[in-house]
Amino acid sequence: MSGIPESIRIGNGAGFWGDNLDAPIRLAEKGALDFLTLEYLAELTLSILAHQKRADPEAGYVGDFPATVARLVSVLKSQPGLRIVTNAGGLNPAACARETARSLAAGGLGDAVVAWVSGDDLLPRLAELSAAGEEFRHFDTGAALPGFGAASGEDRRGAVVSANAYLGAAPICEALDRGARIVITGRVADASLAVGPAMHAFRWKWDDWDRLAGAGTAGHLIECGAQVTGGLLSRWRTVPDFAHIGYPVAILAADGACVITKPPGTGGVVNRETVTGQLLYEIGDPARYHTPDVTLDFTVASVAETGKDEVRIAGIRGAKPPATLKVSCAYENGFSAKGDLVVSGSDAAGKARACGEMILDRVGQAGFNLGRRNVEVLGAGATLPGVETPANLKEVVLRVSVWDKDRKAVERFCREISPVITSGPPGVSGYAGSRPKPRPVLAYWPTVVSRDHVRPIVYLRPAGELAA
Between the N and C ends of the chain, which has fewer C-beta atoms within 10 Å? Predict the structure, then answer.
């Protein structure tokens, strides 16, 4: 078909919110990209954004993204074919689009078209969807979300603060088809950030399952940033130059095969080990990895090193996606706090455990029965249970964490940490910081919704007009 490229280059410069701020810039400058994706969202991130949006209705998006776009203005000018796709919109894609437009307009790119996608936010529609038969049953327990559907157990009516469906690639493709230079979504499946550009560039049919599976695989491999270029590799001493690790580029062919690589001259490594490790990351059944766009079968994949820092993946099979979309809900669930102290000297681990129990005992003496409590001695096997540790450690970190529905109980715990400095065993330090404070907890409720009940909408405006 005329105008269809043989391949496209998609680079991902962020694997989570908090990733290296310079990675998108370096990748865009050195990656010779057609599309730059930035994947910021996790379930924890959505809860953080929900906290922010409750405090400020104009918040709720990844604040790093508009600043990143401002730094990319010169690259966007010098590479007019480069387009950016991101889920930085979080719980407020429209606000993120406005702030991003201001960055573009200020840099002289007022004509650049900014698109944002809505429709993933189901919070205003929970009652409507419940009436339509949705029960929002928990993935693991099968329980219905109380207050919506056949509820039983703890009542959380009014406590749900976010409910976002994982959209697929269709609205991203639509935005690119309509001329968007930057596409900002809320919650979409991570791999869909790459599937959307592939569908736009190659004009595949939406039931061309094997090619969709190839694009979904490319998106899955690069979605976590440097995890596929040497990050977290068990044989980490074999990875060159972690300080300048390169972020991944997927060279996706029109037949659905892809090559994973990284910009030349960057640190890290791409080999069969790094690629297969990421291929199996967070997928459940490798024969049935469900995404909103396609169900992937990784068991038939061909994974081969084709050159230095180049791995080709082909042969992925695809099938129709599920009739439901994953939904990430967060609901109010009490308060938590934690405190850390350094304990040193003879029998440091024993002293640390004693201090932890003293703190909790004194909270009880004050009349509070904490709902959950945890005493950890870091350095004495707390993070690796069963691993043998020296018998008489000379230095450890005590970490005590608690949770309760009652904020006052958690506040009292926060006030009982400092007293052990002078009213407990010797050798306690690390208390120069401020007293911990209770934090409201948003708990995670994973569920599904019929895709027939989710309606993505794409909006587009020139940056200069949107910024005004």
Answer: N
